[in-house]
Write a structure and sequence with these properties.
Blueprint (H helix, E strand, L loop, with lengths): L8 H15 L7 H9 L11 H4 L6 E4 L2 E4 L3 H10 L7 E5 L5 H7 L4 E6 L2 H14 L4 E5 L12 E10 L4 H5 L1 E11 L9 E9 L2 E10 L16
Helix pairs in contact: 1-2
Length: 231
């Protein structure tokens, strides 16, 4: 078990309910992943003060300087992290994590975390939240999501916090040999939970993929399929 004290009794109770009723029932069994969710105060990373909402599976959006980011639900995020097989020494790239909730969870699982966001406002919020929680292993970078953070890599694990249609090539190139990338892939016409959570593995110069589970996830700018020309 991780040795972190809960922020207060009520949020700790809400996190336990989330773990028991959302994560465990969605086949999240990895104790390290469950512990990381149990000790991370999600209310720090969201605007809502209503703990019943913060720890529910309802869609959540954070906004900084007019830019919004929709978060993965806890159960989808947890299943992706479980599938990524993160080890204590892993170098992880966290893509599109908003104000740093996923980065904070990753900090309890990995050796180091680079949190990549599209704007300085989100990066600053992530850095402030990490500092408040004493999570010194998190480093923030701002820039185009699809370009990754090559100067910080290579990475053992890359987490993409949302649904993508294409444009993962630069991220694949930043995986270390044996590295894994997890995300939700959306094909044309797919809506809701018809999208697919996928794990990609880098084997030498090749990248293989395997289906994980059906998932609903917010679409990410920068990974949208380019419109085809129609005669």
């Amino acid at each position: 078990m991780l040795d972190f004290s809960p922020v207060s009794t009520l949020p700790a109770d809400r996190r336990k309910t989330m773990a028991d009723c959302q994560l465990r029932t969605f086949e999240v069994t990895d104790l390290a992943v469950l512990d990381a969710f149990m000790v991370t105060p999600r209310e720090m990373f969201l605007a809502s003060a209503d703990l019943a909402v913060v720890y529910s599976d309802a869609p959540q959006t954070v906004t900084r300087e007019g830019v919004s980011r929709s978060l993965l639900t806890p159960m989808v995020l947890a299943r992706l992290l479980q599938a990524a097989d993160i080890e204590k020494g892993s170098r992880v790239l966290d893509v599109a994590g908003g104000c740093g909730y996923s980065a904070a969870i990753l900090a309890h699982l990995a050796g180091s975390v680079v949190a990549l966001e599209a704007t300085q406002a989100f990066s600053a919020a992530t850095a402030a939240n990490a500092a408040a929680l004493g999570l010194e292993s998190i480093r923030t970078v701002a820039g185009p999501l699809a370009e990754g953070a090559a100067a910080e890599g290579p990475f053992d694990v890359i987490l993409v916090n949302g649904a993508v249609e294409q444009g993962l090539e630069a991220l694949f190139a930043q995986l270390a040999p044996g590295g894994r990338l997890v995300c939700v892939m959306r094909a044309p016409g797919q809506v809701g939970r018809s999208a697919k959570a996928v794990r990609f593995d880098r084997i030498g110069s090749d990248v293989s993929s395997r289906f994980l589970f059906d998932a609903a996830a917010p679409s990410l700018d920068g990974f949208a399929r380019k419109a085809a020309f129609v005669f």
